[in-house]
Amino acid sequence: MLEVTGLQKIYRDREREVEAVRDLTFQLTEGELACLVGPSGCGKTTLLKCIAGLMEPTSGTVELAGRSVTGPPPDMAVVFQEYGRSLFPWLTVQGNIELPLKEKKLPKKRRGELVAESLEAVGLSGSARAYPWQLSGGMQQRVAIARAIAYEPRVLLMDEPFAAVDAQTRADLEDLIRDLWNRFDMTVLFVTHDIDEAVYLGQRVLVLSSSPTVVQDDVSINLPSVRDQLTTRSDARFTELRTRIYSEIQNAKHTSAAAK
Amino acid sequence: MNMMTADSVRPARTPTDQRRLAGARRPVRARVPGAGALLGAGGAAASLLIWEIVPRSGVVSPKYLPPASEVLAAFVERLALQSFWTAVGDTLITWALGLAIAFAAAVVLGFLVGSVPLLRTFTSSTVEFLRPIPSVALIPLAVLIYGTGMQATLLLVVYAAFWQIYIQVLYGVVDVDPVAEQTARSYGLGRWSRARHVTWPSALPYLITGVRLGAAVALILTITGQLTIGSPGLGQSIDVARSSGAVASVYALILATGILGVTVNVGVRAVERRVLRWHTSVRGENTA
Ligand SMILES: Nc1ncnc2c1ncn2[C@@H]1O[C@H](COP(=O)(O)OP(=O)(O)OP(=O)(O)O)[C@@H](O)[C@H]1O
Ligand SMILES: [Mg+2]
Predict the structure, then answer these.
(1) pTM score, two decimals?
(2) What confidence tier does B29 reach under pLDDT thresholds 50, 70, 90?
(3) Structural fold of domain B66-287
(4) What string of DSSP letters covers A160-189?
């Protein structure tokens, strides 16, 4: 479904070069929910932008359903890390969700349905006419998610979407993502720097090393598919998995420190 | 609000600024409802009183400054005259037409030049040369081309208002939040759609600032043109009244231009509040 091969990205400006991503290779199969963890600054956002066709990799390729990605693919939605800036303040919640659908030339009736459905799914049915800046941070984040779902993407990329919300909202949003993924048939790549979150959410966790970034480990999460904040997190396997990933990241830090 | 006057010379805040400021609420001053209006009315009454007393007591000769009552009487008298309303109409038409032409040209050129970096750099030196030329310096040229008709004044108005708006549009077009831009791109919005749904609204606060400045400057040059070139309008009426020695009428007409200025300003502000409902500068006012 999604194939990233030998991806490298070097940011160049006049004074310096930053190698954000060294060499990334991995595949996602159709309908998978994979999490990507890695320390801050290891190039997660960079990778996502390359996958989303918003940025050209220095070398390597991204292929989506056998087609090489050169611009934003039509059936992909991205939830950005800076969700507040990603929502358009001059449009209402409804307007924000509807704009991509208008661009898709969907008829008015269908657009209305999609807006209502997606807002319902994130529990914001009452806020369609509000402006994003009239909502709390967590609500704005849900609007950004609703906009992505209404777009009916086959692939959904999410960049640390819960970094700025409190623990309770975060737990709710995590369950929301699992729920949406179950209901709508999509492949999800979820970026986070929170190991617990990655283990809780994913079927699979890709661990990135710190810069220069490579795929350090690819852990399949053999937890039951119905997850629950309390029971799943206290499961012995959960603890085991997170310990494994945690030590993996610690290792990565030491080896890369030694290499320098 | 004083915040807005302080801002009026600068381009509107950048989105990043706005976001930072969005969290910070200005303290709400406790006030008695209507107290501001009452105080304002009191101030106006006091000024009129002083204006009445100064010429009457002979501090300033009434030959140069007729008392307020006399001027107001002359003003009311004018209101009944057809010629007065024709002059007002001419002034408004010159102003509105000049502003509209400047607006259209500045928006089209601003968007075009602003979004092509090469063009922007290429034209910047020319702009920096042309912009500071005071419009009034073009009066001889305007007369040469158009004589003393309305077009001569129009030329000045367009020239002056154009730069005010154009410069703001140039700033506005590049002040698009990259995250918003990338969001639009990732959702498949094409070049034209992005211009319409992202760049245009992002530039709108700048554009409105430009229009506000442009509208004021346009009125000044409308009157200036009519006064010095003699194109029809209030400015010309002032000159006619002056040459016939009708001092009270001169003041009455000046009063009329003042009222026009205030009306224009209030109008632009109303438009601003409507169009920028979503913008921090306006929505802050609503919550306070
Ligand atoms: N536009 C840019 N120009 C130059 N360097 C950049 C640019 N964007 C990112 N970088 C650099 O690339 C590296 C990776 O950045 P990136 O934003 O991808 O990290 P990240 O893993 O998403 O971090 P975080 O978890 O903090 O969001 C960093 O060292 C950063 O300084
Ligand atoms: Mg990031």
Answers:
(1) 0.83
(2) low
(3) MetI-like fold (1.10.3720)
(4) STTTTS-HHHHHHHHHHHHHHHHHTT-EEE
